[in-house]
């Protein structure tokens, strides 16, 4: 049986991690894999996470099953952070815990496939490389459109407007709620407003991927586009990840929320999400969501988490400012948000940056701004110049 399989290409970012580790040069800089790093280059366990883990160790008295929807108190406590306090959301929103944002996207895709198999998913490119395969594996048709021009680092807004305007009622629009991966280019609030109007006018369903809330301009600001859209549309899906903003990566913590047109549809959405979770993973892993719940249940731990998240956000934006200060023509990096920027370069140039300068970034030209220190800005700019970027 297995001889019929074709080999799949290895994950290039994982190869990059190995190559970086094997590089013995001092001064090498890792802008590759998409995790936050602190001023010591570490990806730390956040202080509030440590406190919550200690609390759980001391007090958790059972690990019995919770069910396919996971920890519903976790799901509820995240709600005001994501959606604010609008009463509308109390009656038309339902959520389940999922293994990471990836699990939320998977269940979201299957829910769309179950409800409306002919819906197309509109996906602006470039995007997170896992988006298109997740939708395809749920047997949904993906319609690509160009989202940015990497040479000018500008949103191709006419292309966005064309894609949305030419879609059929019920088609789904994947939107990065904040901190676009891989480009760091978010829509302006004026553009978000126009997108919201198009969603409403063409009866399109937004699927908002919110994987970096708090790492752009702060928790509230990063949620503003999501809240504006939900205020205006009838139905929406929100795939949320706590893996970046709680630093929980391999614990796999996320949630899928669905906003229905009316209260009557809530039960249908809820029972379908639970049934889909059941056939995918039966029940989500508990520990990470229990940590987040514990933090959000405690005012002290919540304050600790918020303060450290702000520090992380400031550090990334400080690195962005350091590059902009070192090279005026890279000033766009300081206007972008989240962990990433995507420079326009060939994979040969990315390879030369690694081989000649010890600067590691994805072959696509995506760089993780959290991987550097402000003092590295000069070396990064010098290397980019030497390679003609
Ligand atoms: N969406 C985007 C845009 C992402 O960048 C990521 C993670 N890289 C995810 C979703 C998935 O997050 P998780 O690790 O929680 O599955």
TrEMBL record:
Keywords: Aminotransferase, Plasmid, Pyridoxal phosphate, Transferase. InterPro entries: Aminotransferase_I/II_large, Asp_trans, PyrdxlP-dep_Trfase, PyrdxlP-dep_Trfase_major, PyrdxlP-dep_Trfase_small. Residues 28-383 form the Aminotransferase class I/classII large domain. It comes from the Bacteria. Its EC number is 2.6.1.5. Its cofactor is pyridoxal 5'-phosphate. The keyword Mitochondrion does not apply. One of its GO terms (molecular function) is transaminase activity. NCBIfam families: PRK09257.1 (NF006719). Belongs to the class-I pyridoxal-phosphate-dependent aminotransferase family. Homodimer. This is Tyrosine transaminase. It comes from Rhizobium leguminosarum bv. trifolii (strain WSM2304).
């Amino acid at each position: 049986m297995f001889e019929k399989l074709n080999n799949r290409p290895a994950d290039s970012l994982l190869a990059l991690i190995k190559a970086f580790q094997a590089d013995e040069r001092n001064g090498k800089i890792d802008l590759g894999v998409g995790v936050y790093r602190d001023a010591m280059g570490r990806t730390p366990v956040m202080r509030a996470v440590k406190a919550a883990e200690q609390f759980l160790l001391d007090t958790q008295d059972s690990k019995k099953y919770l069910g396919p929807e996971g920890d519903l108190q976790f799901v509820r406590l995240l709600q005001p952070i994501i959606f604010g306090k609008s009463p509308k959301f109390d009656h038309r929103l339902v959520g389940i815990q999922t293994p990471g944002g990836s699990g939320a996207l998977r269940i979201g895709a299957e829910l769309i496939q179950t409800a409306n198999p002919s819906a197309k998913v509109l996906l602006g490119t470039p995007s997170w490389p896992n988006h298109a395969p997740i939708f395809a594996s749920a047997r949904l048709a993906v319609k690509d459109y160009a989202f940015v021009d990497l040479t000018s680092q500008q949103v191709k807004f006419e292309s966005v407007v064309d894609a949305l305007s030419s879609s059929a009622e019920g088609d789904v629009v994947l939107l990065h709620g904040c901190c676009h991966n891989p480009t760091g280019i978010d829509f302006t609030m004026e553009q978000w407003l126009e997108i919201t109007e198009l969603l409403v006018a063409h009866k399109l369903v937004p699927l908002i991927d919110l994987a970096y809330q708090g790492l752009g301009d702060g928790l509230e600001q990063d949620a503003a586009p999501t809240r504006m859209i939900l205020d205006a549309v009838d139905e929406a899906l929100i795939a949320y990840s706590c893996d970046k903003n709680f630093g929980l990566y391999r614990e796999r913590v996320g949630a899928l929320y669905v906003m229905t047109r009316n209260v009557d549809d809530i039960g249908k959405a809820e029972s379908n999400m639970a049934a889909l979770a059941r056939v995918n993973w039966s029940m989500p892993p508990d520990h990470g969501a229990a940590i987040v719940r514990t933090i959000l249940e405690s005012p002290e731990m919540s304050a600790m988490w918020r303060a450290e998240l702000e520090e992380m956000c400031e550090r990334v934006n400080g690195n962005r400012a350091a590059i902009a200060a070192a090279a005026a023509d890279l000033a766009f990096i300081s206007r972008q948000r989240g962990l990433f920027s995507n420079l326009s370069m060939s994979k040969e140039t990315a390879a030369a940056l690694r081989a000649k300068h010890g600067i590691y970034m994805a072959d696509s030209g995506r760089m993780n701004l959290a991987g550097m220190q402000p003092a590295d800005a000069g070396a990064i700019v010098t290397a980019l110049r030497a390679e003609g970027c």
